[in-house]
Amino acid sequence: MNDRIRTDIAHNARVWNYWLGGKDNYPVDREVGDRVTSFHPSIGEVARADRAFLGRAVTYLAAEAGVRQFLDIGTGLPTADNTHEIAQRVAPESRVVYVDNDPIVLTHARALLTSAPEGVTEYVDADAHDPATILAAAGRTLDFERPVAVLILGILNFVLDTDEARSIVRTVMAAVPSGSHLVLTHPTFDAELGGEGNIAAMEFWNAHATPPITARSRAEFASFLDGLELLEPGIVSCARWRAPDGAEVAQYGAVGRKP
Ligand SMILES: C[S@@+](CC[C@H](N)C(=O)[O-])C[C@H]1O[C@@H](n2cnc3c(N)ncnc32)[C@H](O)[C@@H]1O
């Protein structure tokens, strides 16, 4: 086992994997995952809705917007439909760079490196707090003269300072050209989406698991998309993005295009 992997405290990537029905988690992750579920019973649906949103957004970007490059920051453990599989199903030549800082994701990264021969996948072990390093590493695989879809799903919630979170997004989006996209999800306490359950759930998480998490309001979420053209249907529960019948979850989702 990678000696950076700690099995005495729950880690987000592993608990997320547990909620998605995966097997790459430890007893401590399942215990914390179950306790969080007791505070916020729909958390498993949040995880599934987030992945389904990723599927719809990447399919749209590859099939309709013609995007062929993807930078997926805060990838998570490999699961059923990873970004490169979705994109390369539409366009086998798609190039995908994955980034995460959890040692367990690094250990399983091989499963993300199964690119179609026409395309490329790469994995970068890096921290979202350091976008310059991410961009330098991604620039070895992606051509920043051509549009890039930047995926930041369920990870800005681990950047506790909102100004810093905005600055990370701005730095990454400044490096990519017009026609690039930002795909974003984020949990909320907003009652409009039934987010009240997140209050006790996140309090419990922050006392027993890592990394610490925060929720954001609709206005804060919107501020991450400043300067981008919001694609229809705008900012909605990620379960409802281009899926009008989806059962709402307390996780905002949106896609913005760089003009
Ligand atoms: C909730 S999961 C989301 C996974 C995937 N993006 C999805 O939507 O299904 C968040 C991921 O972000 C990663 N993460 C958290 N903080 C990070 C940081 N500072 N830098 C890089 N990755 C981070 C975690 O390890 C975890 O894999």
Summarize, please:
By secondary structure, this protein is of the alpha/beta class. 37% of the residues lie in helices and 17% in strands. Strand 3 (95-100), helix 5 and strand 4 form a beta-alpha-beta unit.
Report the principal-axis shape: globular
CATH class: Alpha Beta
Largest sheet: 8 strands, mixed
Query: Given the helix and strand composition, which structural class is it?
Result: alpha/beta
**Helix-residue proportion:** 25-40%
Structural topology:
Blueprint: E1 10-11, H1 12-19, H2 27-39, H3 43-63, E2 69-73, H4 83-90, E3 95-100, H5 103-107, E4 120-125, H6 131-138, E5 149-153, H7 162-174, E6 181-187, H8 197-208, E7 209-210, H9 218-224, E8 229-230, E9 236-237, E10 251-257
Helix pairs in contact: 1-2, 2-8, 3-4
Bound molecules: S-adenosylmethionine (SAM).
